[in-house]
Amino acid sequence: MPAPRKYPQELRERAIRLVVEAREQDPGLSVNAAVVRIGSRTGVNADTLRGWVKQADVDAGRRAGTTTDDARKIKDLEAEVKELKRANEILLAASSFFARELDPRLPW
């Protein structure tokens, strides 16, 4: 179960939007300066907001990286692979058990 989110989704979206707008209004403004300025106004930690902005840029295709949707798909596929490996181990153990029952001379 994931940890509860400290900041509501609406605040997250608003803070990201404000950083993007601040940088559009002042092209010379760095991401760090915009994040510090907006973070203090919205009550969001600057490092947290910086991460949100970076991920929003990745999701929008403005920056290289793994998108949120791709990360979720990867996580789901990894869980599925883990479950399939577990099922294969169970099936292998069951097949060797039944093989011994049919022919006790087998070395397994």
UniProtKB/TrEMBL annotation:
GO molecular function: DNA binding; transposase activity
Keyword presence, Coiled coil: yes
Pfam hit, one: HTH_Tnp_1
GO biological process, one term: DNA transposition
Entry superkingdom: Bacteria
InterPro entries on file: Homeodomain-like_sf, Transposase_8, WH-like_DNA-bd_sf
Keywords tagged on the record: Coiled coil
Coiled coil regions, renumbered to chain: 67-94
Protein name (record): Transposase IS3
Lineage of producing organism: Bacteria, Bacillati, Actinomycetota, Actinomycetes, Micrococcales
